[in-house]
TrEMBL record:
<protein>
    <recommendedName>
        <fullName>Lipoprotein</fullName>
    </recommendedName>
</protein>
Length: 184
């Protein structure tokens, strides 16, 4: 089993980003005739909650845009999850295997909680596949494509890594242990 110590990344990841709303904004509903009414409502609730909630997601300070036009719903055991691709400047990512050919793709996703609240996570996908499309709904929280080779890291809303997995041909090859340094 590979062990990664995120000693140099975590102090940076732990930096909090505070977003504040400035004035009243009119928000265009995110409706899509190819989705069910329930899916459209979930997405609109996610967006409303996101825009009216203070976030500490580290990745958002680097995001050029949140692609709400490309949001999609993943369905599975943990419920329906809204995944939103992010546009991040080229070259931003993790340093895995000291390999500059690994390209990183970022998403945030929302897990519904009671009373129209959400738990929000960052999903980082690293791959050498130059044809990977970040807004492909067939590659989602519940489903890894059969030919995917790369890494997936899930980071919670406190910017703490929750899981870090390596995939080969779409199958989990290795769960990589993450050891966070303790504050002394």
């Amino acid at each position: 089993m590979t062990r990664i110590i995120l000693k140099n990344i975590i102090p940076t990841v732990v930096l909090a980003l505070s977003l504040t709303s400035c004035g009243e904004e009119i928000h265009k509903p995110i409706m899509n005739k190819n989705r069910t009414r329930t899916e459209n409502e979930l997405i609109q609730n996610c967006k409303n909650w996101y825009e009216n909630t203070k976030h500490e997601l580290f990745i958002l300070q680097f995001s050029e845009s949140t692609e709400w036009d490309h949001v999609f719903i993943s369905k599975g055991d943990e419920g329906d999850i809204a995944e939103v691709p992010l546009i991040i400047p080229k070259g931003f990512g993790l340093n895995i295997e000291n390999d500059p050919t690994i390209k990183y793709h970022f998403r945030i996703f929302f897990m519904p909680q009671p009373k129209n609240q959400f738990e929000v996570f960052t999903r980082i996908i690293g791959t050498r596949d130059t044809t990977f499309v970040n807004n492909d709904s067939d590659f989602n929280y519940y489903h890894i494509k059969p030919h995917f080779n790369g890494y997936e890291m899930i980071v919670n809303s406190k910017n703490e890594p929750q899981k870090f997995n390596k995939y080969k041909d779409g199958k989990l090859e290795e769960e990589i242990s993450i050891y966070l340094p303790r504050n002394q």
